Prior knowledge:
By secondary structure, the chain is an alpha/beta fold. A six-stranded parallel beta sheet has the order 1-6-5-4-2-3, sandwiched between helices. Helix 1 runs antiparallel to helix 2, helix 11 crosses helix 16 and helix 17 (417-429) packs parallel to helix 19 (457-470). The two termini are 40 Å apart. The relative contact order is 0.11.
Amino acid sequence: MARRVTANSSMMSSAASGPTQSLRDIVQESLSNVLKNSTSQLPGDKWIVLVVDPQSLRVISSSIGMYNLMEHHVSIVEDLMKKRAPFRDQAVLYLVEPNEESVSRIIADWTPNKATLKQGPLYGNTVFLYFLGRLPDELFAKIKACKELVKRVKILQEVNLDFLTKEAQAFHFDMGRSPSIYPDLYLSKYQTAENISPMQEQMVQKLVTVCATLNEYPHVRYPDENELCRNLAFVFQQKMNEFVGSNDSWWYNGDGLHPNSDRATLLFMDRKDDCLSPLMHEFTYEAMVNDLLNIEDDRITYNSINAGTAKEGMTDEKTTKMDALLNDNDEVWMELRGMHIADVIKVLSSRIRDIVDSNTGSTLNKAAKGKDGKALSVSQMAKALKALPEYREIMSKLSQHMQIAHQCMDVFTKQKLLDLSDLEQTLATGKTDEDVVPTLKKILGEVVTEFRGQPNSVMRLRLLAIVIVSQRGLETQEQLDILLEEARLSEKELNALKNIEKLGCPLVRAPQTGAKGRMGKIRSTKVSAYHPDAIESSSAETEYVSSRYSCVLKAIMEKAAKGELSVEEYPSVMPLPDAEGMLGPSSMSKAKSVRKMTSSSSKWAGSSSTNSQGAKKKAHGGRQIIFMAGGMCFSELRAAREVMADSNMEIVVGSNRFIKPMDFLIDWKNLGRKEA
Length: 676
């Protein structure tokens, strides 16, 4: 049997050395190399059977795509967990997660039984074994003990791909959906770096494969006051050291042999340090799609309006259900996903009109009913699509996104999110859109009014959670009792709300010593901002007043990209090469954001800005890798793209999974489980 090896620079050098390659590009090239290295050892024009387990199937689907496999002479993709048909004339390539079940099933394929003694094994005499991550010694020993398998193995390799690519610069581990990992993260008896839980160790081991794939041996940092991040950081450093020590041929950026690259920095973050961002309603395209519509693994079903049966002057359009994949293969999605929904509809309408106008303008009059400059309705767009067959492909893509965007707006209107978002923004930023700091009593009165008009109990739970989290707890128990009475939550919803205390957020703040009478204090208390950087961190030239809040992580990434992230607040496991240089000046002035409504009648109006960004300076240093334990939300994913674009610093973000607001609330509910 071929000896056990780890994917190294000989296999991945072209993938890892290119500074412009994204994480997804590197993964795609690594998977292609796996297939090429295997099929190149077969005589002639032979085909191969690819056998995968559930995790490796998701890795392939999230990066290279199933449709590309035939180019590498893969005849069929089989599920290791199911009964499979024999292909005795073909070699087999196993790509699996290094766990007990997958290894046992591979061994079972080659363990003689009545069927194999009579007909032979399922596959031919050539076997390629690839594991997504490190294969434990005990499982390696089990493989060596299977003689029928060993004599057929040509390659046994750890390929360090035990993660999924969400997009070009983002990854996740698909951990925490079911079951939730919150009890393990926040209620676990394992609370030291010397004794972390098996789940946490698995998460760290997967993160090692990310860094191995990127050819990064990063400096490791963490928030000084966060015990979970500290433990994960120290265990990661240990696991990464072990990986480097056992792989002599593996190289990393900043090792002195690659002068065009610097060593990366890995920053551990914890979801419980910002419980507000996942709860907020955000009106960028990607965030709205994931919050308001049904989307799973980037696949969405939307209502497509077809004008094929519509007659002139009539509105009997035909509606059909259509599926779409919203990922990096969709260029329109990539361009629009970070835009405010109002801008998305404007851009789509403008492009559709440009196409219509390019056809002498006559079709516009027939299909879109005039050139008034307004956004096209869905039915007008459908008629234009039918009337312009030569532009059908691009019009179909624009049509798809127009209809998805309108579905977002339909939910937005139905749930009356405009006024609700104004209330949320005031709670989060501590100011109204007119830059006024209101009293807490006034805002809580508006919350009660919202509760009374809101029929959906989950929406009431979400708003109450925003109130409590944004204000770091209510002032008094009386305030909480009143809000709970008005919120009319079910027992399960109430228990979920109470569980936020296990994330370090009290329902009611501890009373301050020497305070005056409670009722007098309530009347004078002002709404407070959730975090000072959540207001001032935005670098966008134009903002919508309904989007004043900026996630806390964005400010942290901006400081990291500039080399200004305090080593006192974010220390490193090992000494940094230039600790003093990474400390920002304590008295650094911050530009104040000016947000004034351009029209008093429109909360959607973009705010004016007199700040010019000026020439952008390229940040020095290697990649910035951010890992969020407990789930990363879509506003943070967008913020990473924005900071990367503004700073020219490569940023890779990841988490155990990417979460929607409902996912976060469900995780709260699961904190009611017994300690792990």
